Structures are given as structure tokens and as C-alpha cells.
Amino acid sequence: VLCSGTLQQCSYLPNQAPDSRTYSIRDDPHVNVMMAGSTLRKVKSRSWKKQRHFRLLEDGLTIWYKSRWAGKGHSTFSVTELEAVREGHQSEVLQSIAEEFSADLCFTLVFHGRQGNLDLVAESPEEARAWIQGVRKLIHKAQTMDEKERLDQWVCDWFQKADKNKDGKMNFKEVRKLLKMMNVEMNEEHALHLFTMADKSESGSLEIEQFVHFYKILTQRDEVWKVFQDYSGDGEKLLLEELENFLMIEQQEGGRSAQHSQELIDRYEPSETAKKQGVMSLDGFQMYLCSQEGSILKPEHRGIYQDMNQPLNHYSISSSHNTYLLEDQLRGQSSLEAYIQALKRGCRCVEVDSWDGSDGEPVVYHGHTLTSKILFRDIISTLKEYAFKASDFPVILSLENHCGIEQQTVMAQHLRHILGDTLLTTLLDGQMPQQLPSPQVRICLVVGDHLSRSVGMRRKGGREERQEERREREREIERERENSCTTASKLSRELSDLVVYCKSVHFHGFEHARSHSKCYEMSSFSESKAKRLAKEAGTDFVQYNTRQLSRIYPSGLRTDSSNYNPQDMWNVGCQIVALNFQTAGLEMDLNDGLFRQNSCCGYVLKPDFMRDSSTRFSPERPEERQGYIPLRLSIQVISGQQLPKVNQKEGSIVDPLVRVEIYGVPQDQAKEETSHINNNGFNPLWNETLNFVIHTPELALVRFVVEDYDKASRNDFIGQFTLPFTCIQAGYRHIHLLSKDGTAIPPSSLFINISISELK
User: Fold this and answer.
1) Which residues have CB under 8 Å from 203's CB, separation 6+?
2) pTM of this prediction exceeds 0.70
């Protein structure tokens, strides 16, 4: 979000002395190589390797590249889109050409979100090293910029875009084009008025200092100024006591407002004079509202704040379906990158479908389809490297075994040898479990269909097997044969012994489960069966999930890798609600939203009434729950800031509207939207209030969606943000919007005022 402030000198502008931070980057020898440009091979496959000329543009953020035969055509991407650089043969594509190009020539640029990697080969090890180190430094610089530096960079970027002839000045014609680029429609008279106000030298063009003035006029936030005026005695500053009143009354902070107000001045006030006086200026006030502390998500819920010592079945667990697929279920590519992307997103349950490979090595793909195959051992190696980068809590490996006994044994060997001590192979305390372990153990846990022989019987120092368990397993194998669920008629002891806590069993109904089930037994349900059970026997399903794990998977008809709504399953306490992580959209927004809290660790503690085995809660009848207190949610949608253009066609400007959607128990499902604002994506102003009643706040998710209104066809998506109702901060807040892919699109935001109260 743009906050007011003065501009440090732009690094690329002629006759300007860059600040020390920019200078240190521009003076870096690796960055200099990037700015001079290099010919690199862009590699898509063993047969597709083409030379492209790459260089870093003067803004220090944009990487430009083109084919030498492409004429004027070129492509660009920003360093801010990059997450990391991998050295050597660290992608499947570069591994496939390892014999042709040595590791010291190869590197991979990894993008945020679902965007594919860029595999590159340099002409010399020195050139590869320069690009690897240079890009890493630029990524670090982009990630560590404070609000002030982000503003400076943002203003510099706009000046560069507007200054078409690169003379360090901007005439009125360039200003008109700039306004279109900034997604704002303004009549020529008003635009000329702003230009004239900024053109102090009356030269007919703006230099950088005058451009800063023009930009401040353009980005002036009257709606923030009005809030400031309501609490400022003199209209110029907020005294400590006035800031306390604002925090207590508007932000509903109560007793902590006194100490917090001084902390906010120390943290966000840009004027040293104001800091010494213990006051906050409008600039500081706006910087606070634009910060993470001023965002809609409670700061205390960003880190681990929940009890992580409960049994596994007391948590919702971020879970992926057919994790190996990057695309559809019939012809899509299977890739190790799919596992990396899911794990980086906080996924803690990944799926592997194993089949006999032709050379004695098990392969993974979607059986009986045209999806490509990858080696089981490569997946386990990827898991070893990435399992605990985003979260320290357990990774559940859901194995669907279709292998014969020989390759099952190979699978077991790979699991043991590659994962080593992180693989759980024995009961944690050597005793028959009365409940599942907590997430506090940093382990890889194997569960799966067509694997379990006598789960729960492996003890430290022994392999006893109870007669009763053996008979139960024999009956289960017979059921599996009858249902033709597996191609494997025999089970490898080495593999089945790795299933320690989660024995896969057929679901025989809630009554049977109540009297016969064990805590270490887990059943899988198709989305349609789970949805039917949730509607017909919601309380029974909730009780069932207080005792053991359940896994939900998408319908086999979803060959396009679309997703079902996970909320229906969370409403009855299902833990492993597996989604196609490769498919962006509402369903993954909800998944990202639920797991955004608790340090994005992939485990979210279910509400207490979903963990009590004697619970009578039903999502169909939330008012019957003990302690039922419905809440009123009132959201004043005030304004938007720098919304991205949907249609990149010149002259196209968005007509934005905001819709707020509630997902939760059936009674809570609701949608309300504002009117649309014509031709203004830059600073649209709504000032409209949307009201909701929330019957089960502990299960509700709130999704804010911004769309480009189109009266003739479907609205276009602009951005969204989803979070649990229980994580919402009341008061004046900014919502930092995300793309369809779930990645940040700074500085796009909404400014809102939220009120939460008990329904009288």
C-alpha cells in the first residue's frame, strides 16, 4: 500500500546520486554482469534449448529477455516474482540434460505461486555464478525493503514507465498516458490542473522532484485524513492520548492501547521531531494503517498460537490429492515440482500412487491414464529435502499401493534409506496407542490404502502381532479382493510394517465405528459420500472425527483437476480434506485462508466442540450447541488502492466492485456486494456497509473478492483475500489483495472498517 513520504533519489535517473543502499547493489560486480546482459540458453526439455538474450533493466528489478530473431518482441518479469535460485541440476529438465551441460553452467529461477520455473544454461561457469549471486542479492533486497523503500521504488517505477524518451522529464502527454497505466480515468482539464500544480518551474515538464509532488497529490488519501481529523485536536498531529483513544474506540484494543500507541509512534512515525515529542503525524498514521499491524489479520495469529499437543485427529490438516500432478488427471504431467510447490504452500499430507516400473523401480502416476511417470525414489528424495522447510510439523505420506510384492519391498527400502530418522517406524512410547500422537514430533508418517497388515503392533525392540488383529486384517484383505481395490494380492511385510499409526480400514457406518473402531484406524470417503453423510448424520460424523482420522478425496469425475468445497468437510471435523493444489480458484482460496493462521504450518486446531467425543454439535442446527452466541459482522467498504488492470489493452480501465462472501455452516453461507465504480482502479471510493449474521464463528471463513464489473458478460477477477473469522481484527484495516494464484500483488489493497458485536 502506498504511504506518504518523500522520495530518495531513483537509481536509474541521469545526474542523480543514488542512495547508499541502491549504490551498493548497482556497484556489485554480479549485478553489473546482469545489467550488461548475457546470452543464456532457455531450456524446456531435452530437445527444446534456445538461446535468449537476458539483461537486468536500469530499475534494478526488471529482467528483460528476447530472441535474437524476434524483432521487437520481448518478455519481462520482475525480481519480486522470484522466490529463489537453484544451482546446478536441481530441476527435472536440467537433470535430463546433465550429460550435455555441466552443473556449474546450470541454474533455475523459481517463481512464487504456481508459475513454472525458468531453467537456464550459461556459456561459462563465471557467467552462471554472476547470475546466481546477482539474482539472489536482488531477491534479498526486494524482500527486505521497508515501507519507505517500497514507496520510493514504486514511485521510481512509475516515473520510468511515464518517461518514454528517457530524458529524465515528463511532459503532459506522458502524464496522460501515465494516468491510463495507473488505472485511473481523469478528464483532461483535471489532469492538466494536477500537472500545473506540480510544475513549479512552469517549464511544461516535470523533473523527479516535481513528479514526487504530482504523485503525492494523486495518491492523497482523503478517507484516511478524515479518520485522522476525528481524533486530532489541531488537525496536524495525534497526541499520545489521542492515539490511545483511537486505538481503544475504533480499533477495540482496550487496556493495551496506552503502551501500544507509544510503540506505534516509535515504529511508524517518519519524522524524528514528532517521535521526540511523542506525537504521530498523518504520514505516520497512514504508514501504521498500511502496515501488517494495521491489516485485517490479527498479528498474534500469524505465528504459532494454538495448542500443538493434542492428538493428530484434533486438527485440520492441509492435504493434497494426487500431489504428483501439475495439470489434469488424464494427460497431465507428473512432476517433482508439484510436491515442492505443495510443501512450500504448507501442505502436510501428500499423496503417492505407486505402480510397478519396468526396470524394478516403482513409478508414480495416475494409473490407467496418459499422465507421465516419475520414479518413487525421486519423490522420496524430494520429500526428504523439502518436508520441513515451510513447517516443522509432521508430513503424512498417503501411499496408494498398486505394486507387486517385490517392488513394495523396494519402496520400503527407499523410504527407510532416504528418509532415515525422520521416518516413523515404531510406536513412540512402545505401547498400544489409546490416542494418536500430537503434531509436536518432526516426522514423516506413512498412511495408505492397500498397505496395512497389523498397524499399531510394531513396538520398539519387537514385532509382535496379536491374533485378533491378524484375523481382522485377513477379513480386510478379503474385502479388498471383493472390491477389486488393488492390483497387489500380497503385501510386503517390509512396507506394511512402516504403517505405524494410521491403518486404512473400510467404513461400515457410524454405529459400527462407535463400538469397534480404534484411534489408529482411518477411513477414506469420496466427496459425494462425505457430503451426504454430513447432511444426513452431521452429529455422528463430528463425533466420529473426535476419535479418529478421516480422509476426503475428490470425485473421479473431476478429470480437469477441479475441486470440491472443503468447507462442507471441515464443518463436520474431517481432518485430511485433500484438494488438487495445482488448481487455483475459490476452493484453494478457502484452503489457503484456513491455514493462513498458526504460522501457515499446515495444522489448525479444531474448535473445542469439535474435539469433545460427547459433542452434540450439528452444522445443520448450530443454535442447539451449548454456548451458542451468534455474532453480527458489519463491514464498511471504504476504498481501494492501486487495483491491477485486468485487460492490458491500452485505454482499458477497471470498474471495480467488492463482494464479501461468508463460508461456514449452512446458515452462515452468504454473499453481499457493493456497487461498481466506473473507470477507477487507482483509488475507487465506495463507503458502503455490508452486514452479516454469523452463527458459528469458530468455523466461518470470510472472503473478500474484487471484480471488474461487466454488464454484458461475467465479471473479471481482480484480487481476493480469505481468512478465518476468528482471525479478524476489528476497526479500520487494510486488506492486502492476492492474485488468483494466491500470490501478493502489492500495493493493491482495500481499506475497510470492521465491527463485530453480539446479536441482540
Assistant:
1) none
2) yes
